[in-house]
Each structure stands twice: as C-alpha cells, then as structure tokens.
C-alpha cells in the first residue's frame, strides 16, 4: 500500500507537480469532498492571527485593549500564537476603577505570567462626561474619555479591540480595520470598502485605527476556544448561587444572569439553548433605543 | 440599541463540526432583502425572546406599521431613512448547517458596503421584486457576484403577492435573470417565488404558489456549500512579515493554497531565490511536524539566510507563480473620481503593495446597464478591464488558476478604491524562463560585513560629463579600501566597452544600460560589497528604476558641478567634439540632463577639494548605516 502513501510518493516526485499535472478530477469514494483538515475553531484562529500580523506589519504604534474579559483574553492568546509566544506591543487596560476585585487579581497575575507590557490608564471623573447621556451610558463613556487620554499620551496609531459582530447590532457593521476620526469618533456612514482580507491601514496624522481581530467570532466560539486552549478565565463567569456573569463590565452597571453553568461545557450547553442576548446584563445597552450607538459613534468600543 | 439576536450557535458543545455557510442577500433597493432576512429568522425560530414584541412596540410608538426589516436596520440613521446603509451579519441554524446571513445594502450609493459584505460570502441570494422585475441594481449586483468570485447563487422572486402569484410573471423574470447570469458564467442553483412579508415559499410551500415545485428559500440555503480552502492547488504562501523576536528568523504568513512541510524545497518569488524549509514554528508547541494546508497561518524558518521581505510569495519549485511588472485585470471601481488612463495608483496583491500606472482601459461599462462601452475611464460603480504597469515586479497568478493570488485591490489616497480579478499576467519582462534556479552564495552577507565593517551598498554618482564623477568615485574607492572595505568601481564607460557593448545612446539603450549597471551593482551590494557607480544617467526615470532595483541599499550622489565648469574641464574631449558637431546625442550641451530632486547628497566639485568631498561622502555613508561607525572607538584610543 506504500504507493498510496503521500509521504513516500513525495520522495519520487514533487507533490505539487503531481497535483497540478493531473487533468483527471480527484474522485472520492462517496462522491463528496474529503473532510476539511481545519475545524471551525482552526479557521477562526488562522483568520485572527492573519489580522493581528497585518496590523503589526502595517501600523507603527499598536496597543491591545485588555478589558480582562473572556474576549480580550482570547485575543491575547491569539496574539501570543501570532507572534510565537510574546505579545510585541503593550496591553492597555483603561481602568474605570470600578471593576470587580476578581478582575484586578486576574490582571495582576496574568499580566506577569503572560509577560505583557501592561499599561494601566485611569479614566476621568464622571463630571467630565456628556451629561445628556443616560446614567449607565454616561458611566461607560468615562472609558471612552480614558481611552482618548491614553491615545494622546502614547500616540498609538492602532488599537486592537476584542469586539464581535454577534454581540450587538452596531458592532455587526464594523470593519476589521476601522478608521477613527481625530476625536476617536466612528463615521458609520462613510466606512471604506474592505474585502479579500485587504485592509485600509492609512491613518491621518493624529487619528487612529481600530483593529478587530475577533470580529467574526461568536460568544460560543470564544468559550469553545477558551476550553480547547485551556485559557484562564475569571471565575465570575461561572455559576455561583444560581447566577453567573455572561459579560463583565463595571461593577455598578453589570448584572449577573440566572444560570447553573459551573464549567465551560455547561456554559456552551446553556448558550446552545438560550435566546437571551449576551449583553442583557449590561445596563447601558438598554437605557434608550440609541444610547449604545451614540456611545460607539463617539468612540466607545 | 440591541436589536440583533446573538444566537450563539456556531460552536456547539460537543465539537465544531457543523458546516458553517456564509450567504449574502443582494438585490435592488426596496426589493425586500431585509424583510426576507427578518422572515427567515422568524421561520427558523432564531429570534431572541421578546424581540418581535419589542419591535412591534417600537413601531407602534413611532406610528408606523411593523416591518420585518426593522430587525436588521438597527442603526438610528437607517430607520430614519428606511434603507440599509451598511452590511450586517446575522446567524441562524437550518436542519443541516449554521448560516451566517450577510445583509448588504441595495442602494447604489452604498455599493462599497455591498461589496464588503458580499466578498465574505460562500454563496448569494439575489432578490427581485416581482412587480418591478430586473432592475439596474439587480444586474449590477449579479455582475459583482461574478467579479467577487461567488459561483453559488439562488434567485428569489419576492412580493409575489403583488402580482397575484402569477406563474407567468414569475417565468418572465426567471428567464431574464437566468440569461443575464448565465452570460456572466454564473448558473443559478434555484429560482424561487416567495412573499417574504407573508411567508410563502420562505420555509414552506403554500397553496398560493402551488404551481411551484422547486425548493423553498430555507431548502435552497441548505444546499449551498461552504467555500473550501484551496488545498488542491499549488503552494502559495504570501509573506506577511519576518520576525526576529529571539534567535529564530521566522517567515510568517497564511497559506493561501496548497500545503507545506519541513524539508520542502521552496522558491521565493518574484526574485526566484531558492531555499529549504527548516522548521514550521508555532506556539505553545514548536516546531510542528507534518503537512500544513491552505487556510493555516504559519511561521517557517529556512535553511539559509537570504533577503526575503513582506510581499514575497513562497511556492514549490516547478509550480511557482509568474513574476511580472504587467497585469491585466477586470475590476470594479468605487472611487468618486473615475479611473483614467495614466492614473497613478497603489496595487495590493496578497501582502505585496506596489505603485502602478494605468496603461490602458477597455470595456468600461455600467454593469447595471451593460451598454455604452468606454475606453477612457471607469466611472464610480462601473466595471472595466485595465492594463497596469507595476513599479516593482510582483508574484501573481491568473485568477482562473488561483483565485487567492489572482485578485487585487486598488488604493487611492490610502483608501481602497476598487478591486478585481487578474485576467492575465505578462511575464514578458523577463527574458529567462521562469524555472531558472539561482544559486545563493555560500557566504552570508553578515559574514562579509563583519570583515569589511560596512554593509553592501550601491553608491550612484550622477551628473554632467566632466562634473567629477569618476574622480570622486576613484577617490572614494581608495578611501573605502584603505579602511578595510570592499569597494568596486563600476564606471559607465568602462562597462560600455564590454557588458554593455551592444548598447548605443538612444533613450531605450540608455535605459537598458542603466538597468544592467543597477543589476550588477545590486548583485555586488547584496553580497556585501560597495558598488561605486559613476554614470551620467541623465534620465530621472532610469535612476528611479535603478533605485527600485537596489532598493534600500541605494545612495544617490548628485555631482552638481555647473555646466560651464564641466565644459572647461572636458577631460575626454567630448564637449569640444559635440560643439564641433562630430559627437551626436551628447548629454551636457543640450538641456537633457534631469537633476535629481532627492539625492542623498549633492556635491559641487567646483567649490571644494576632492579630499573634502570624499570626507562628506564617507560621513553620509556612516550616517545612513552603510559604514559601521568606529569614530567613537578611535577617539577612545587616542
């Protein structure tokens, strides 16, 4: 049977020549294509790594926004894969000062263990934020202001952010490389075309670009990948006294959901059946019809 | 506001084996795309709890009847205008697969967003209003699906309730659109009569369309296959970057087609250099064994150090892409300003970017009208065929041979302005066959640099005859040699006596003369020597070409001695002969010398000594990283 072994066949003839030289279509026993060599998570991972490497190649001064949540932890993991172990740009935590204690403990531990160039930047007091926003959105908008401060301080031209299309309607319209105005704003009406993994990476002087390497992932993808890769998580995501957090934000504007899921398998099973949106526990999404969109246009993630 | 369901169904708890297919819904504005999507979500039980009720309440509050499209048109601006501005994605499950629906705007104003959405799809649903029939945007979207390489297309004839479910009207539309698409090489997989608003034909056949025997929309979606990575084609690995984070020198990129393993002999295109893959690197486990196929993002190390950069394409020997400076492409154009003959553009193909100019335009047409062919310019939202001349050679395939390395985008002012398919690649620029196998030197450039204490370079002295180029070149040669370096003089006239003996002084021959000088000098520079070229080289274009060949090892020195001084010197007697009319095509008497605008150094030899000028050149070489700076160490010794 050695004649059918591709490795031994390669010794005699070049593999590429065999494949291209043959005009006869390959026939498979059941008339179907062979199973793909990459599964769904492999494909997601390869695409994210491609995006991260494009960002690193085309922008001058990058930072990765580390919110300490499940999505940005996956993103850091992907960056370590993309760059063979070490993240070659700073991890920026824009700290509202109101996160859960478990989140700070996680940051302090894994910032060191993952050998991150961690930069923690504070947010301005609440008085400095647009008073016409509803209370929770106003509180979250502090983060946007904190982000602007950090941008000015370090002069980053690219910020890598862990948003996903399936999280929320306006995020579904995002580009992978998303240009921002001088004030950090998002001009949703004039987004450039983006196709075939060719990205718009030119940044006007003083403006920056958001890069979204996990835009194409879903909440379930994040969990399935976290499990497969054994990525550490904050225990708040797991059920305690019948409740768990699906999404982590500031302590005062984030609520747990009813859940008995005490490990990732159970989370995945729960997601499989749920019709409740992921950000249901995030107060700022639900205050008025357009509060979240207004936040995003102003530069929120 | 959170109007879209996050039906998180792509990864399943027991594995990730369900096929995921991405489908774009396209068609003319108001033909019912968003309505169909809303209805599909409802029919497949994909809506979050309370969403339908909440939307109905929002509609009531705004005093307008409920629309299924509200589900998608989530942005404030969209609801106000009643049209979809940008592309949106939404997920649901059918019996056999996970579907990602991409809703693309139908308004001509937002074609760039339609393309952004559609380019991510495995298949498409083209929707047509039964009352209005095929419209310009229907045809335009059909044409763009072809240009985007989407082969699986299902047609949906919507609003059948508005034509009393007439089988005749359906057939009329079906025939027209089928003929249009077939002409583009796209065969529709199904043509389905539906009423998205009422639900007929979406998930179920109803009595009102009892005459229709084909699949429902859900069934047709179930039949679309996910696009597969191109594992069966020859290896193409466009290089994204070279990383030197530790002692490994890792070449990183994504395999666009074929596969690779450690030990493979590879060719790096367009330069045609050969090497062997030493290892396939990864993290946390490294190195990896076995074969790695299309779709993987990989990092490899090579068995030798050679010049490789972002934009190169790695292939297997004997199955390489073409290297070319000339491409013909069929493109769509999205920029406000029409693309015209002679325009300077930026091309991105794979990870390579290069400047280019549009040499010719043909068959420019509005794909919505398909008439009035133009040959001067391609207007916004139109398509056409272009010939482009590239500033640098690139590696490319015709799209019929490899769809991933056979497509390109065009950038104008840093923003993507168009894109299209590579129809043909003219490899005629290179006289030699593509399967030449250049042999790399046994020595690495670093070994030579360590001995010579300088990097390789091409020092290009340009200026009028008699300006002092050869004198300076000889002085520089002596200076570099005496500090232990390896300078080599390439004098224009000397080379004309041998290598370039077949060339005269026509513009074409001068160009070729410069190209050969640059190629020889670059070869020396790549091997660690400093090639000192003394050549009049009057044409700015020719010198720019030389700079492209030598790339970042190029240092241009403009020997800017005034013309009258040059003529009084006249070391070779050329000025005298030219004045006497016995020497034709002599640069110096006319004004055909084009001075460099951005030379690294400008020296007027009428105002300074040779030794002084040589000092200045030496300083420039040290400052720009050619000579290793030892001045500090020398000072310490004194």
From TrEMBL, chain B:
ATP binds at residues 463-470. The active site is at residue 537. Pathway: Sulfur metabolism; hydrogen sulfide biosynthesis; sulfite from sulfate: step 2/3. The keyword Transmembrane helix does not apply. Its EC number is 2.7.1.25. GO terms for biological process: hydrogen sulfide biosynthetic process; sulfate assimilation. SMART domains: AAA. It comes from the Bacteria. It catalyses: adenosine 5'-phosphosulfate + ATP = 3'-phosphoadenylyl sulfate + ADP + H(+); sulfate + ATP + H(+) = adenosine 5'-phosphosulfate + diphosphate. Residues 18-230 form the Tr-type G domain. Keywords: ATP-binding, GTP-binding, Kinase, Multifunctional enzyme, Nucleotide-binding, Nucleotidyltransferase, Phosphoprotein, Transferase. Catalyzes the synthesis of activated sulfate. Proposed to provide activated sulfate for transfer to Nod factor. ATP sulfurylase may be the GTPase, regulating ATP sulfurylase activity. In the C-terminal section; belongs to the APS kinase family. Sulfate-activating enzymes, NodP and NodQ, may be physically associated. This is Adenylyl-sulfate kinase.
